[in-house]
């Protein structure tokens, strides 16, 4: 029988929290570049006058901008070029699969926003695999705040750790 994936060391990670704060405002150029990258030409993301006519104080960012850009990052890219948050869980012999995100957008993000994010490792659950053995489901929650500590977005992410071997 295979050793359990969810051991006491991993259980001790549940509830861990880390906060990152962006060093600068998001800025119009970053929002425009992101909109171009996702091929969204909505004038709300490019034109202050249009956005004001629509009831916003300025242009706004596409909804996923805050949760996908890692603009709060302070470090260097890792070996894969990623600069965002990672838990670096002590799990060996497994592949990690992003299994889904559940987003909640509270208010539009503005170029003047200076965002902070607090990540919490919320839960870990070991479940059986259809082909035998088990896999580990890890749930994390990231809450994004502006400089006044107003909540602007929530990202609940699930990742799955599956043992390497036959059928992977």
Describe the protein's topology.
Layout (H helix, E strand, L loop, with lengths): L7 H4 L5 E5 L6 H10 L10 H6 L11 H4 L25 E12 L10 E13 L5 E12 L5 E13 L5
Key words describing this protein structure:
elongated; five-stranded antiparallel β-sheet; single chain; 168 residues; alpha+beta; Thiol Ester Dehydrase, Chain A; 4 helices
Would you give an account of this structure?
- The protein has 168 residues and is of the alpha+beta class.
- The protein has a domain at 8-25 and 71-163: Roll (Thiol Ester Dehydrase, Chain A).
- It is built from 4 helices and 5 strands, in the order H-E-H-H-H-E-E-E-E.
- The protein has a 5-stranded antiparallel sheet with strand order 1-3-4-5-2, with no helix packed on it.
- Strand 3 and strand 4 form a beta hairpin.
- The longest helix has 10 residues, at 28-37.
- The chain is elongated, with a radius of gyration of 19 Å.
- It starts with 7 loop residues before the first helix and ends in a 5-residue tail after the last strand.
Q: What's the quick description here?
A:
The protein is of the alpha+beta class and 168 residues long. The protein is built from four helices and five strands; from the N terminus they run αβαααββββ.
CATH class of the domain at 8-25 and 71-163: Alpha Beta
| Order of strands across the main sheet | 1-3-4-5-2
Alpha-carbon distance between the two ends: 18 Å
* Silhouette: elongated
Can you give the helix content as a percent range? Answer: 10-25%
- CATH fold naming of the domain at 8-25 and 71-163: Thiol Ester Dehydrase, Chain A
Number of helices: 4
Hey, roughly how much beta strand do the residues contain? 25-35%
By secondary-structure content and strand pairing, the structural class works out as alpha+beta
- Order of H and E elements: HEHHHEEEE
Cα radius of gyration in angstroms: 19 Å
Mean pLDDT: 89
